[in-house]
Structure formats: C-alpha cells, structure tokens
Design goal:
The chain has about 425 residues and is α/β, with parallel strands linked by helices. Helix content is about 30%, strand content about 20%. A hairpin with a 7-residue loop joins strand 18 and strand 19.
Length: about 425
C-alpha cells in the first residue's frame, strides 16, 4: 500500500507530468495536492500531446482515479477546457475525477487583481502567470474565499460573494483605479458553472483513506518546484502554496506516517520562469541553445524559460527539504549537442565558498557559482531506453549529478514520449 509523492526539485517545469504518467501505471489513485492552473504538465503519448494544468496526468491511464485535493485552487473554466481537450483526445473521464469540497475557486475577480498587481509599477514584479492563483490563496487565508462546498448552498454562496466583493472592490477601484465588479455579475458567472462542476465534488479525504485501507497505491502529485515553495523557496519570488513533499499531507489529508517514498524530479540542467535569483543562469549562446533544444517555453503562458547549468546546492537542498528517496532525471537528450557541460558544486558568497543552502535564501541573490566542467558526449541519447546503451560520458555526468544531489537516480527521461525512458531498477 505505498503512498508515493512526486515533487519538483528546482523552480518547476522539471517534467513531472511525464514522470507521473509513467508511474501512474503502477498506482490506482493519482492525487494533486497544491497549486492551480498556473502549472502545466505536458505528456506525449504516441505522438499526441496533452497539456494539463489541474487534472493529474494519471488521467491518461485508463481506469485510474484522479483526485484534486483541498490544497488546490480550481479555475472552473480552465478545468472544463482540460476535460474538453481530454474527451476530444479520446480519454474517458467519466467517474474518474473527484474534487475536494474544501478546494477553493478561482474567480474572475482573482484574475483581475492578479493582472492589476503585476502591471502596477509601484509594486515589486514577481512574474506571476496572471491566472489568479495568489489572490485566491490570499482570500482562502483571509477567510473570504469561495470553497467548493459553498457552491452547493446558494444562500451561503450569495452571502460570501457580497462579503468578498466589499473587500475586493475597494482594492480594484481605490488602489488599482480599475472598474468595480458587481455581485450580480460574479454570482451569474459562478452559477453558470455549478451544474457541470457539482457532479465532480466529493469527499476526497475519505476516498483516499478508504483507498489506503483497501491496499490501493496512491501517487501524490505536486505542481511547480521546491524553490517556489511559499516557506522554503526564493521568497518573495515564489508561488502561493506549499510545493514541497510535506504539502501532500496538508493538501490531501494524508497522515505523514503513511508516506512510503518521495520521488524528486530534476532536469539535467536548470530552468526558471519569471523573476527572482537564478545563480547558474546562462545569458549567452549556450543558454539560448539549451532553450532551443529543450523547447523551453512555459506550457501555461508560453513565456521563454531562463536556462542554466545544473545546480548542485539547489538539488541537495531539495533532497534535504523533501526527504527525496529517488530521483527521476529529465531532458538528458537536450544536452546531446553540447561540447562542454558545467555543474555548479558550490557558490562564492562575499568571498567565501558556500556548499549548501540554508534558511537565508537571500544568499542566492549574490551567489557566484563554482563549476566543475565535463566533456559533452556529442552523440544521441534521445530515445535510449537502456542505461547500458548510454554514452560513457553521459554516464559519468549522471553519476556526478547523483553524487551532487544526495539521492540515487532511478529514472532517466531521454525524450518527450512515454516510451523514451530508462528505468534503472524496474
């Protein structure tokens, strides 16, 4: 009865969607524990590409149950668009999606405030997706949000919307000089999606408890990555939820003692979207080459991702924070074209060598990477499915990344497709 957690070890976009899809074959329930439609998981199956933002990529495995936990904020319109995409792609979703009644809704007012905040020149730019994630989580914390169970009680819903807009309209019209939103408009919008959303709402915590009791295998799926965690990331350039493995217990209601294994997902290099410190960032031709070869553009926004070398201190930090037992390494094939590779093994901060990230993550803003250089293998790894068939120089590189990370690499992705994968310990 393993309960396993998939967690990103960098700044998100590590390729978790593909790894979840692969591991879903051996799990009965795949459960999303945090985040919203600001995350994009891309999975390619038999040449068909699916981009999912809310629904766990386990939905692409027939017969698997997909749970959206209380720690997630749900944009109904985005959810419906995903369902339409899946159904058009021949995926049967009937009876396979269950949303927690405690999950909060992302509403048009949240998106308006998100965009207004990012465009306001008097405030620090964080680089959000503008999807309303932060404002929805802020309302949840301020206890003026709209959880799913409010949708099932019209009186409660109407009262909550009026209370929310009393606060939000003062921000919109006063601080941001935008037009106010009328309660009737927002209620009409919410009521329009209730009939389609209501059948998906159910007691996810009890469903997961029952699954564990019956010996079912559960895979907990996070969005974004460790370095974007609200408490443990590069604050304030972070997301609004708990991306680390501990977030799975909170966002799904699973006791910590039930967790069997944490699988960290990390790229063979590093990327970051949006603002914030990024010690190994490459702003030269090599960075541009990695971006081109890796198709490094956001699945949610299309924004180009900043690219850089593999960061050992970040990987060690993620292993420590999450309790990573095994690593799934992605996009090895992207590096096939490079003559030389570098791995950051430490930072120089104020003249001192720093090997590990501590609670003061502000050191990343002035950190200068200390690199170890490797020869590129200059041969094709794309599509390789056996570790023994990798070039020797690629194996040397992987061995060093494993040493730097502090956890064994058990899966290596060598391409976008489900089949382009090496599982070292089947």
């Amino acid at each position: 009865m393993p309960v396993n957690i998939i967690v990103g070890m960098q700044w998100g976009d590590e390729g978790k969607g593909k790894i979840v899809d692969i591991l879903s074959e051996h799990h009965d329930v795949i459960a999303r524990y945090q985040g919203g439609a600001n995350a994009g998981h891309t999975v390619v199956i038999n040449g068909s590409k699916f981009v999912l933002h809310l629904i766990p990529s386990g939905i692409l495995r027939e017969g698997k149950t997909c749970v959206i936990g209380s720690g997630v904020v749900v944009d109904p319109q985005s959810l419906f668009a995903e369902i339409d995409q899946l159904e058009k792609g021949g995926v049967n979703i009937a009876g396979r999606i269950l949303i927690s009644p405690r999950a909060h809704c992302i509403l048009p007012i949240h998106k308006d405030l998100d965009r207004a905040s990012e465009s306001d020149t008097s405030q620090k730019k964080i680089g959000t997706t503008g999807k309303g994630i932060g404002p929805a989580y802020a309302d949840k914390t301020a206890r003026i949000g709209i959880p799913m169970f409010y949708l099932l009680d019209d009186k409660k819903l109407e009262s909550a919307v009026h209370s929310m807009l009393m606060v939000k309209n003062s921000l919109l019209t006063g601080f941001y000089s935008k037009e106010r939103m009328e309660p009737e408009f927002l209620l009409k919008e919410i009521r329009s999606f209730i009939p389609k959303l209501q059948p998906l709402i159910g007691d996810t915590r009890s469903a997961l408890a029952e699954a564990m009791k019956n010996g079912k295998n559960i895979l907990c799926e996070g969005a974004q990555g460790t370095m974007l965690d609200l408490d443990h990331g590069t604050y304030p350039y972070v997301t609004s939820s708990y991306t680390v493995s501990g977030g799975a217990c909170v966002g799904l209601g699973i006791p910590p003692g039930k967790i069997d294994k944490v699988i960290g997902v990390v790229k063979a290099y590093t990327t970051r979207v949006g603002e914030g410190p990024f010690p190994t960032e490459l702003t030269d031709a090599i960075g541009a080459k990695i971006q081109e070869e890796g198709h490094e553009f956001g699945a949610t926004t299309g924004r180009p991702r900043r690219c850089g070398w593999f960061d050992g201190p970040v990987a060690r930090y993620a292993t420590e924070i999450n309790g990573v037992n095994e690593i799934a390494l992605t996009k090895l094939d992207v590096l096939d074209v490079l003559d030389k590779l570098s791995v950051c093994v430490a930072y120089k901060v104020d003249g001192k060598v720093v090997e590990n990230i501590r609670d003061d993550v502000s050191i990343l803003e002035k950190a200068r990477p200390v690199y170890k250089e490797f020869d590129g293998w200059k041969s094709k790894t794309a599509g390789v499915t056996e570790y023994s068939k990798l070039p020797d120089k690629a194996k040397i590189y992987l061995d060093f990344l494993q040493e730097q990370s502090g956890a064994k690499i058990s899966i290596v992705s060598t391409g976008q497709g489900r089949e382009s994968t090496i599982v070292k310990n089947k």
